[in-house]
């Protein structure tokens, strides 16, 4: 059995379920002869990108106390994200390790390979000692 979309000369459209060999029925609205219309196609499912590691639960509580099914789902989601990032590295973001993330680096973490800011009296946050550098009152 197949689903056919039919149309009559009067413009009425309808669907029927019938075998391939059966004759096409007349239009139920006006009784006119009908013909097959190319059917619209449907795409099942949906696509989306798996969440980044930062978006995954980071605590025991976040995994519903280590619920086995939920943890299995998280593992599969993480594997799907890893596979996606291997195929499309531009989605991976900055993968360098974070060296410092507290204090002045709280809003912009220092990563491996980043240049550290040069400390000058202007950005020394009120600290004026120089650890004995020459010309600054040292001996």
From TrEMBL:
InterPro entries in the cross-refs: Regulatory_FmdB_Zinc_ribbon
Ranges of biased composition (kind: Basic and acidic residues): 80-105
SMART domains on file: CxxC_CXXC_SSSS
Positions of the UniProt region annotated as Disordered: 38-61, 80-139
Coiled coil: none
Pfam name, any one: Zn_ribbon_8
All residue ranges annotated as the Putative regulatory protein FmdB zinc ribbon domain in the record: 1-39
NCBIfam families xref list: CxxC_CxxC_SSSS
Protein name: Putative regulatory protein FmdB zinc ribbon domain-containing protein
The species this protein was found in: Planotetraspora silvatica
């Amino acid at each position: 059995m197949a689903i056919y979309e039919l149309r009559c000369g009067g413009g009425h459209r309808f669907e029927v379920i019938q075998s391939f060999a059966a004759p096409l029925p007349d239009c139920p609205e006006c009784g006119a002869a009908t013909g097959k219309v190319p059917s619209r196609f449907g795409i099942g499912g949906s696509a989306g990108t798996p969440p980044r590691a930062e978006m995954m639960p980071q605590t025991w509580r976040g995994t519903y106390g280590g619920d086995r099914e939920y943890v299995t789902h998280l593992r599969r989601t993480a594997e799907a994200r890893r596979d996606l990032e291997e195929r499309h590295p531009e989605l991976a973001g900055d993968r360098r390790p974070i060296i410092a993330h507290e204090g002045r680096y709280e809003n912009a973490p220092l990563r491996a390979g980043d240049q550290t800011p040069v400390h000058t009296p202007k950005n020394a946050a009120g600290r004026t000692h120089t650890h004995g550098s020459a010309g600054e009152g040292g001996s």
